[in-house]
Inverse folding.
DNA sequence: AGGCTATACTTGAGTGCTCAAGGAGGTGGC
DNA sequence: GCCACCTCCTTGAGCACTCAAGTATAGCCT
């Protein structure tokens, strides 16, 4: 598997910073980043499978509903929802559309500013979300369980991940 | 505007779930999983921006080339490449097409089995990849740098992530 | 030989996001 | 009162993947 003739050696670039101590299999940031990307793909698949099987929604539907539920009154300006989810306004429009169609979310006009439309969780939406939540928690637990980490490591992972989650949050 | 209408439920982790015994305020697996998803989205954006700006390829183009370069002779059956990348065969066909068009990869027939088509890195591909590699390493380093973790934490992260990266690898 | 099943790959349709352009409404200078 | 500009949101086009179906080849069993 390890290739004899290939390694496209890095050009003699200076990025190998003077490191007085040995680190042959040292922590490779690129490798770590690629692992993270891979891990996420796996996670998303499992959530999508579980959530769509039981509740007919995708992970991204679920996270939209979840964020909404965390906002006061279960409603947010669509632009703020986008920001909170790390999406564009466009992504929110398209993602919310099917949820409105099936009655989990409604569109509400803002009293003073006709430009803004709130997205609001309906009572049904709240109900359905709470069912989804138990499924989602189960999946999350299952995903991490076979790793056999002590609970501490889960905390560690969350902590390490936090600064990477984007500009703000 | 923030008008805390009386709305009980909807704390990140209180309601629903008939959980007979409550765990102490332990680490929340769901929250951790969602953080991971978010972190990846941010990462992918940074890699895509950097790689496409300098080399005109996406992160997924890059990872395809990278895996190819790790295989003996820089060539793999397309189905094995799919497996190694966690994609479907279909995804590989579509992803490789533009790379073939610009001459970084070629299609090679297998001598004994006419069903299989190898994907092989061209000399140009190898060259261009090695330039991309230095960019990618730089980005990876930049991504983790502001976290100010000791290098150990990077290793820890990689280790924690590994069991999550999928069925095999 | 013929037929069955399995494997490697491509293709059509669909999904979920992106960016860029555009409409509609709000705001401040004059 | 008007005009330039800003914000919120939607829409068209495109991209990167998916699944399902289709094609071609391989190999085994009788």
């Amino acid at each position: 598997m390890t290739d004899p003739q290939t390694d496209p050696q890095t050009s003699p670039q200076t990025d190998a910073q003077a490191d007085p101590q040995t680190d042959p299999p040292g922590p490779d940031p690129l490798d770590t980043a690629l692992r993270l990307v891979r891990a996420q793909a796996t996670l998303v698949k499992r959530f999508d499978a579980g959530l769509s099987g039981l509740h007919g929604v995708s992970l991204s539907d679920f996270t939209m509903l979840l964020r909404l539920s965390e906002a006061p009154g279960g409603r947010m300006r669509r632009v703020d929802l986008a920001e909170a989810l790390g999406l564009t306004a466009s992504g929110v429009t398209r993602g919310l559309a099917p949820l409105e169609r099936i009655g989990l979310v409604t569109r509400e006009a803002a009293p003073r500013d006709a430009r803004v439309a709130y997205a609001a969780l309906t009572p049904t939406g709240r109900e359905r979300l709470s069912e989804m939540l138990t499924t989602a928690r189960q999946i999350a637990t299952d995903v991490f369980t076979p790793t056999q980490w002590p609970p501490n490591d889960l905390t560690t992972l969350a902590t390490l991940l936090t600064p990477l989650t984007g500009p703000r949050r």
